Amino acid sequence: MRLLFHIAIAAALLTASTAGSPAQERATKDDGQRLLPAPTHITPSARIDPRRFGNTPDAAFGAYQRGLYITAFNLAKPRAEAGDDAAQTLIAEIYARGLGIRRDPEQAANWYRRAAEQGNPEAQFQYALLLIDGRFVEKDEDQAFALMEDAANAGNLYAQFNFAQMLLDRRPSGDSLERAIRFYEKAARAGLADAQYAMAQIYASGAGGKPQDDTTARLWLARAAHQNYDTAQLELGTWLVQGRGGEANAQAGFGWLSRAAQSGNIAAANRLAKLYRAGIGTEPDVIAAAAWYVLARRAGLVDAEMDIFMEGLTDDERREAIARANRLR
Fold it and tell me: Is 167 within the bounds of a domain?
């Protein structure tokens, strides 16, 4: 009887009311509400792809992998100057990150550009990011778009994800949406957590010609969650408690929300507080509930329901909760 009651009230318990800055609202209200990740989110570099150095062992890349960055630089530099695009990309990466030598973003940009002009997908991706950013090269969003498209078509999964984002930023509907979804799916199937989360949102909403399918959406959420993607952990935990997309499992849902909260996800901290308060997926614990809400509140999340809960605590309970919150961070 208690389990059925928990499932019935789960949706209400896991809905957070927020107020504050737009960034604070994005950390809570937008989780699971917007169709796809924001188009301005650019996934960091995949760094150097060893496949670009061919199937035979490469001394420069081998040195790079072992952390012998100066040796890698010295071995790659003559090849880079002679026009080897993989060596140019390696030199650019060493300059960009300051590995063994002084960091030099301008030199990195120059070498990424030279390699990108030769069609190196990793360099095309990196140089596109520089063109979007506009700090070390002149900003050029059209050229960035073209380079990101080339890198995506060449199979760079980070470029596939980001090109999909750029497509939606320019025209978030119709053919562009369907095309973006094709690139999201390629990157997701290659294992990119950002794209897996995007696919979960696509199936949850039935977007771009995909059928609305919570079961498939939950599978994509699980794949991203297992890669420590905290927003996916937040949503997967919520879905498991609610029984959305499959059988309800309050204990598993509690576990995923706990992982997300411990990684610093504010919305997860608030939802975890509600689970502790109601004893869903765990034993009821008002001090733990209050402690997690204290952390969420400090980060800017405001939940009127949880504020009322806090007002009902005794002074001793509030002091204990604050002490526990301090230990949680």
Answer: no
